[in-house]
Amino acid sequence: MICLKAISVIGAGTMGRGIAYTCAAHGFHVTVHDIEEKALKSCENYIEEQFQKAIEKGKISEFDAERAKNSIVYTTNIKQAAQSADLIIEAVLEIMDLKIRIFKELDQYTKPETILATNTSTMSPTEIAAQTNRPDKCIALHFFNPVPKMKLIEVICGLETSEETVEKCFAFGKAIGKECVKINEFPGFAVSRMNCLIGNEAMNMVMEGVGSVEDIDKAIKLGLNHPMGPLELADLVGLDTRLRNMEYLYQTLGEKYRPCPLLRKYVKAGWLGKKTGKGFYEYK
């Protein structure tokens, strides 16, 4: 079924680089685009490290790792990234205007049959698709961090997404070793709606003095059998990203998603989690 061979990833940040590595490791030709050379270099270094770890663990041979790395192109030219792709996965910040602008550009540069996917955790693929001339080929593919380890992709259909597009995305997910679930579009989809509620309530409990950060995380991990505590996870995602998600859900779904004041305070202070060295935890 799958006829997608060339994948382009728009955005070389945490999610983009994880998606790019995973696709390359499973035999796809990958192009990574970012507006900053520094971000592309950081992405290239990350991918090199991931392949080295995979070699050391016996998951891939040196020959296959080298071939996969050689199949990756890094560029700041979005037209170059778009023109030969079968599937483009946009992985930029959760800002609707930014995503729409990128989709409008991609719609101009890509082949008519190219699928345009947004890696959003909350936002409407219908609204994004409506700005293109191919809403039937637009979809949301919600990957999870860290992409190489997390097994799920939420496949979210817009109002006009075709069944053929859905089937191709499911086949693509299977080809990169992921399980896919089909979710009908609604703000936050399935995972983010639940995850944001749990994380926000954990932050409220810290603010109210119910328990320490460490004890609340430990309680959730051991009591609910979660692999990671909600505050640790928020730090990993980035508290600025979590705040943007919460604000979007608050606007669209109402009061129960009002962001915790402590989250707002941390973001104002520049405590964004693991990427800045400090959030609910401190990182060296």
Describe the protein.
By secondary structure, the chain is α/β, with parallel strands linked by helices. The chain folds into two domains: about 5-185, Rossmann fold (3-Layer(aba) Sandwich); about 190-275, Orthogonal Bundle (N-(1-d-carboxylethyl)-l-norvaline Dehydrogenase, domain 2). About 50% of the residues lie in helices and about 15% in strands. It has twelve helices and eight strands. The protein has an eight-stranded mixed β-sheet, sandwiched between helices. Strand 5, helix 6 and strand 6 (about 140) form a beta-alpha-beta unit. The protein starts with 5 loop residues before the first strand and ends in a 15-residue tail after the last helix. The model has no long low-confidence stretch (mean pLDDT about 95).
Any chance you could write out the topology, listing elements then pairs?
Blueprint lengths: L5 E5 L3 H12 L3 E5 L3 H20 L5 H9 L1 E4 L2 H5 L4 E4 L5 H14 L5 E4 L6 H5 L8 E5 L9 E6 L5 H13 L3 E6 L6 H18 L4 H12 L5 H8 L1 H15 L7 H9 L15
Parallel strand pairs: 1-2, 1-4, 2-3, 4-5, 5-6, 7-8
Antiparallel strand pairs: 6-7
Helix pairs in contact: 1-2, 8-10, 8-11
